[in-house]
Every structure is written in structure tokens, then in C-alpha cells.
Amino acid sequence: MRIIDLSLPIDEKAFEVHHVEIERVSHKDGVEKFNRVIMGKTFKGKIQYLLGKRILKKDDVPDEEFLSLEVVHSPVHVGTHLDYSFHYGSKSEGRPSKTAEEIPLEWCYCDGVKLTLTHKKPNETITAQDIEDALKKIKYTLKPQDIVLLHTGADKLYGGPKYFSEYPGVNISAIDYLLNREIKIFGVDTMGIDRPYKFMLKEFLEEKKPLYPSHFYGRKREFIHIERLANLEKLPDSGFKVQCFPVKIKGTGAAWSRVVAFLQ
Predict the structure, then answer these.
(1) According to CATH, what is the number of the domain 2-9+76-263?
(2) pLDDT tens across 171-214, in order?
């Protein structure tokens, strides 16, 4: 069995629209961090710490190194992640929207199918007809709970500004096509399912066309989608499993996931 990593990292050095910071406490600095945190729990301890007292010294630990610590400050929409209905609005299908920790786990390990749509341009959307044509090309019929992965190749732009401006969106007709065939989760190798912001904003300002139509469609029909996939070109068209279990973060509209494919 081969395992293909389909995920992008949370990387504070990559270009991002939202601020990402990873506070890294080294092994050498860990001793001082330990003292500051533990002694800072009481007023007396804080005073003693400021006066130079330490309860742990470097020679108290092996190699004068403590445990490393990384603190990630990041939106849940950075890195590969699953979006659920709470992200789209407070209600979906007339009911209170569900948050990411409520995603049914049985939907997150299913047969996968890759649809190659690398011909689609950044100012275009992937339509129901595109989905149907791609399925015919690989002679595949969707079955309930297949995880459908839409391959555009946009992941190769990750790390720079073009990742946020050079990819096709997903048309509402394509979402309907998948939902009508009982697909619970579909994924894209782009940063979002709507077209890049530069196209949407221009049309909104000039023609009052709606912003984020595909996301907002989640208020009408409940669906889950994966954003920021990678390496889809390494997959066959079908005959593999996809695992996309969400990290259990309470009360969020999205959750990070280490998405992988299993090939026999």
C-alpha cells in the first residue's frame, strides 16, 4: 500500500492573506520558559522570578535542554482544511448550521475519485457539465459518499501571491451535481471554492454580482468541502481511499486535516 500526502502545511513563511505566526521556543530557551510560566502562577513567584530566583536550572535537565514548544497562531482556513456549514452561515437548510467537530467521521474515509480540470482558467468556474465530461472521460459513475477531488494544479502556486489569484472557482451547478448524487465531501487543490477575490470584487463593484456565491450556497444545501489540497497529480483517476478526518476544534466552521490517499 502507498500513502500519498494530499495536504499543504501551516507555514508562517508562506504568503498568506491572514496573519500566521508560529511561536517557537527552542530546547535551550525552554528552561527559562518553564521558570517564567511556573513561577508566574503566583504573585510571590512572579516577584521571585523578577529578582532572579529560578526553580529549574539548565544543569537540572539532560544536555541543558528542556522540551521544545511551538504555539501556532493561525486561522483554521490556513493549511489543508474542511469547511462545514457554520462557515457559510448561521443556518443551513433552515436548521442551525453544524460546526466542524460535528462532521460525521464515516464520511471522512471513503473511496476517492479524481477529476482532472487543469484546463479551467482563473476567471472561470467548474460547472456541472465539466464534472460530467470529466467523469465520462475516465468512465466512472459516482456512488454515494465518494470523495470527489477536483484537480486544477493550482497547488503548485502555493507560497506566493498567485496562489490567491490564479485558480478557477466551483460553480453552484457543480455543487448541485455532486450533492444530487449523494456526495458528502468534495475537495479542491485551490485556496477556495469561489473564484479569486479580484474577480468577485470587480464584478460586485461594477455589476453588483454576489460575493462568495458557492460558499453562501451552503446555507441552502448542506455540504462539506476540502480546501488547499495538494499533489492530486500523483493520484490515479479512481481506485483509492481518501482519509480526511478533521481536527476536533470546538465550535469552528472549519478544521485542519492531514488529508491522505491510500493506494493499493
Answers:
(1) 3.50.30.50
(2) 999 999 999 999 999 999 999 999 999 998 989 999 999 999 99
CA–CA distance, 137 with 129 (Å, rounded to integer): 12
The per-residue pLDDT for 264 is: 86
Domain residues of the chain, as ranges? 2-9+76-263, 21-73
> Beta-strand (E) ranges in the chain?
2-5, 21-25, 69-73, 81-83, 91-92, 95-96, 109-116, 125-126, 147-151, 169-170, 185-188, 224-227, 240-243, 254-256, 260-263
pLDDT of residue 124: 96
Q: What's the predicted TM-score (pTM) here?
A: 0.92
Task: Give the whole-angstrom CA distance, residue 213 versus residue 111.
Answer: 28
Q: Which of 137, 118, 145, 156 is nearest to 237 (CA)?
A: 137
Q: Taking the CA atoms of the chain, what radius of gyration do you get in angstroms?
A: 22
Give the 3-state secondary structure percentages of the chain, helix then strand then coil, rounded to 5.
Answer: 30, 20, 45
